[in-house]
UniProtKB/TrEMBL annotation:
Enzyme class of the recorded protein, top EC level: transferase
A single MF term (Gene Ontology): transferase activity
Protein name: Phytoene synthase
Key words of the record: Transferase
EC number: 2.5.1.32
Length: 210
């Protein structure tokens, strides 16, 4: 939903698109690799790219992120996104410790992405990690097939949403919080594609704030 977040931005819609592009790249790495060690290596490369301005030159997204004026303010938050996906990657298919890994993933990925958006928007104040964690799990649940793992993810998302207050968030992340929190309260994952109903909800969240 990077188009939605960018449309709601007040200051830096292009940087917001880049933030979501990094998150999508990390997600594709983790959800597509069969060997966790391969996924870890690819994620480590992106972490190094964010921390070291000499690595990854010529890679379009890496260059675009580092050339943005908001990058210094967003850097630590972007690294948290990578770290969050790594938590899920390390857990792999092992049942032991998977729920703990999902909790860490949610806080790092969701808190990192919401924090990066807030930094790009020059928002002042806390970015509400719990609201970000609920969104991160809602989004992940939509990428998982029906089954026990998706049920676990949705339960954790609902728990984060119950104790989160997204009202003070910048408008882009406030919209994501509204959409995700309502769904997880009903045990629903993120939709796989845009529907007329979802589009109506987006417009209501964007213009009416509910």
């Amino acid at each position: 939903m990077d188009w939605l977040v960018a449309a709601a931005a007040r200051r830096n819609p292009l940087m917001l698109r880049r933030i979501f592009a990094l998150d999508r790249k990390c997600g594709r790495i983790v959800l597509s690799v069969r060997e966790p060690i391969i996924g870890q290596m690819r994620l480590a490369w992106w972490r190094d790219v964010l921390r070291d301005g000499t690595k990854g030159r010529g890679e379009p997204l890496a260059d675009a992120l580092r050339s943005a004026s908001a990058f210094p303010a967003c850097e630590d938050h972007l690294v948290r996104i990578v770290d969050g996906w790594e938590e899920l990657c390390v857990a792999g298919d092992s049942g032991e410790g998977w729920e703990e890994a999902v909790t860490a993933f949610a806080r790092l990925r969701g808190g990192g992405l919401f924090g990066a958006v807030g930094a790009a928007e020059e928002a002042i104040g806390p970015q509400n990690e719990k609201a970000g964690a609920a969104w991160a799990l809602w989004d992940l649940a939509g990428q998982l097939g029906p089954g026990e793992r998706r049920d676990i993810v949705l339960r954790q998302a609902a728990s984060f949403a119950l104790s989160a207050d997204g009202r003070a968030l910048p408008r882009p992340t406030r919209i994501l919080a509204l959409l995700s929190h309502k769904d997880v309260a009903r045990g629903r994952p993120s939709p796989s594609h845009m529907t007329p109903g979802l589009y109506a909800r987006v417009l209501r969240a964007q213009f009416l704030g509910r």
